[in-house]
Every structure is written in C-alpha cells, then in structure tokens.
Amino acid sequence: xxxxxxxxxxxxxxxxxxxxEHGYDNVKVSGSAWDTNLVSASGRYISVNWNASGGGAFAxxxxxxxxxxxxxxxxxLPDVIPLARSHxxxxxxxxxxxxxxxxxxSGGEDGKVMIWKxxxxxxxxxxxxxxxxxxxxxxxRIDASPRKIGQVLxxxxxxxVLASASSEHTVKLWDLADTDRPRSVLxxxxxxxxxxxxxxTGTLIATTCRDKKLRLFDPRVGGEAVRxxxxxxxxxxxxVVWMGDLDKIATTGFSKMSDxxxxxxxxxxxxxxxxxxxxxxxxxxxxxxxxNGILFLAGKGDGNIRYYEYxxxxxxxxxxxxxxxxxxxxCFLPRRALNVSDCEIARAYxxxxxxxxxxxxxxxxxxxxxxxxxxxxxxxxxSSLSASEFxxxxxxxxxxxxxxxxxxxxxxxxxxxPSAPAPAPTxxxxxxxxxxxxxxxKAVTMPTHVPQTPVLLRSESAxxxxxxxxxxxxPVILTPPTQVDDEGKTTVLEAEVDRLNSELRAAxxxxxxxxxxxxxxxxxxxxxxxxxxxx
Length: 535
Fold this sequence. Notes:
The chain has 535 residues and is mostly beta strands. It contains two helices and 31 strands. The chain has helices spanning 387-391, 487-534, and strands at residues 14-17, 39-41, 45-50, 56-62, 84-87, 91-96, 103-108, 112-117, 138-143, 149-154, 161-166, 171-175, 184-186, 193-198, 205-209, 213-217, 227-230, 239-242, 248-254, 260-266, 272-279, 285-290, 294-299, 305-311, 314-321, 329-332, 344-352, 355-362, 378-379, 399-401, 408-410. The strands form eight sheets. Strands 1-28-27-26 form a four-stranded antiparallel β-sheet, with no helix packed on it. A four-stranded antiparallel β-sheet has the order 2-3-4-5, with no helix packed on it. It is globular, with a radius of gyration of 23 Å.
C-alpha cells in the first residue's frame, strides 16, 4: 500500500443530518412510480410531489435549514395544508427558476406544464386557530403535450426559458412570455426520455433515454441530436448531469448485468473517459455536481450518499454519508444559498418515508474568516440573457456571485481549480450566515467576457474545415510559476497567464461555434433530403 495520501481540501467532508425538529414531518409524498427526484429546492422554498386525491398536486414549503428550525413554522405539518392543485393528474416533476427563488414550474401526467409564483404572505399564521389553508394558483398554463410530461427544467442563463420532456419522446423549449407554441422541438428519441440537463451556458442539452443512448442537442436549432453514443447497457433508469465548465458529462445507469455504474464523457465527441461500477443494488442513482469538483451520488432505496472528487479524469472516493432511512428522492440546494459561516459546501434535501430531512456537507475547519479556497463563485440569481436574445442566437456566460461578499460578475472562465493543500486562511472580517446573497447595486465585471460553451463537435461523415490554428484539441491551461521571490512579479505573471488562458478559450470557442453551426446545417440538410425522398 502506498505511504502517500492524495492531497485534497475535501478529504474529511462529512454529512451532518439535521435534528428532527429542523426538517418536516407528516409529509404525504406522491406514490407515483415515475422516476423522479420528488423534491426540488430554490434559495427560499422547497417543492414536494404530493399524494393528493382528485388530481395532481405538490406542496410548497419554506426552506428548512440543517442548523435551525424554520421560524414560526410547524415541524409536523397539519393534515390539511395549502397545495398547488391545478393539475388533473399526478404531478411528476417540479423545477425552481434559477433567476427567481419564488417561481416554480411543474409537469404532470395530464400533459400540462404550469408556472407558479409564491408570495411570502402565503405562510403567515400557518397552524394558528384562525388559519384557513388556501391553495396556490398557477400564473401560467401550457398545453405542452397530449401525453404525460416527465421532466421540466429551467434554462441556466436565459430568463423565462423552460424545457419540458414528454412521453411523445420529444423535448420542447418554451418562451414563457409566449406559450402558444414551443420555440424549439428536439426529436430522435425512440423511447422514454429519462433525464435531461443543460450545460452551464445553456447552449447544449444532454439527454438519457430508455433506448440506452446518450444524446447531445443544440436547443435552438432543434431537430435531431448533433451527437449520439451508446451509454449504459441496462434499460433501468439512467441520469445525466453536466460537470460544470469542465467540458465533461457524468451519467449514472446500469450495466447489462444490472450493476450500477457512473460514467464520465467528454462533451465534444461524447467519448467515454471513465466508467466505474458502484454496486449491485437495484435503485436508480441520482447524480449531483458541485463546482467544488465533487460528484454526489444518491441511490433510490439507499440510506447512503456517496461523494467523489474529480481530478485528472479520475474519480476519487471521499466518503459516504450513511443513514438507516432509505431515500425516495433527493435534491441539492443552489450553492449561492449555503451557510458559509459553518463551512457548508453542499446541502441535500432527502425525502424519506413521510419526512423531508436537510443534510449539510461540511468541511471540518475551525476558522472565523471566510474560507475562499473551498468556496468558488456560485451561479448567481441574475440572468445573463432574455428569452428573445437566447432564441435569436445570442450566447452569454453564466453570471457568478461571490459567496464572500455577494458581488456579481460574468463567469468568463472557471473559478474551480484542482485540489491542493489548503492555504492558510486569510484574516478578513467574519461573514454572517445567510440563505441568499445580499442584493448588489452594481455588478463587478471581469476583464474578459468569453462564453463557456463546453463542446467540441466533429462531423462523423467528413472532417470539418478549420481555421489554421496552433491550438490543441485538448484544453490547455497555463500554470504560473509556484516559486517567485518577488511578490510583485508573481502578480504580473498571474495576470499574464489569465490573459493568455482567456485568449486560448476565446479561440477554441470560435472553432466550436463554427463546428456546431456546420452540424446543425448538416442535420437540416438530412431532414430536407429525407422529406424530398418521401415526397
């Protein structure tokens, strides 16, 4: 056995389950057999698919914390509570807007997609003697499909853009300002769509399907996938998640022998980087990515949550949060709402039996100052684009927020760096715990504005002409010298490295956009040729 231990800031991360009175009890979770997470969270609320008679419904509740009880709110829910009840069949999925913590979308077996806005006054006087429960009403209804809607997902950078996946085996993109027709329809799936995920800038969608294939789409071009590959060999549920801005995709699924697996794929050509067998359990594995470089895996029917650190195309097991209570569903809190004063780097909400339990994942440190090395900037609640700009072809980087002071800036390049021994904490004023970043009156703009579209597409039928460029296909990251005597020289060198890295990213981005356009044109040409032949 090696005498050396891999250096990592997250080696000792542990999951801390909340006290029972800090979560919710008497939760009547939906009994639908549809493969869904059952729960979703924003920076202020959670939604839970509810077991309701006379149609479909889901509950909207204030966000519980693993560190304290929800003020003026009962831990044990009353038997009758306000619900979002306008669906005529069970609700299958919900998703909160990343740009407004009070906006949630729902999809159900009735083929409808509905948009709901939560007012904070809805939770006043809960459980009091004079309190009368009043159900929530949707602010928009969309006739999305004649068949069930299995997944709904908001766009990460464009406001009011929503994707829905239906049992028609299509994904439709909607502009919520004009829902008379979908703005784009993604086709080509031959069976049930099991999961979908946007890349960080929303210029690509990855899907997993019961036909065992992983597909990559341009959501604005529509039509069939620009990349397809064989994923996991088993037909049980497969899930997909983008690994931030690392140009990688993670999927979970089953082998032909029903072993549970996790696979890493490079986003350009969907080549398999790594596949790991987890175990032989039967529950679907739900993957969640944190920009700390950590991949969380939670299996349905398991009582444990595994987490791995990704580095150099390898997954290194960190630890495992174990519990005797099996989880039916789980979701993770947006990172901008974490409690940084307690070194909380991720937070899960676990649905188990009739309860919702918060679980904080904590780096064990004793420090009074902000720990910048474990808190890369998080996705901000500010959108980068309007819906019309997005569908017109404009691309913008994700807006990021500093978890130290709430400053918002454009994410021109990754703030994540591979693990290294933790530097000594700097002495700055201790931040106060907060559930969402404070409002910022003026955004801080980074020097460069380079979109982060993590894709490198190549035609399979013929090579795509490229501009003459010495840039390598693989990512090139320049590292500044680690030993420089003069501190001023070090700062200058680091600034120069940042500038060169930005130029390299911009050049690769131009090549990628050209290739993506070529793939879209070829896909349209194939469809036109097929239509002519059929005519």
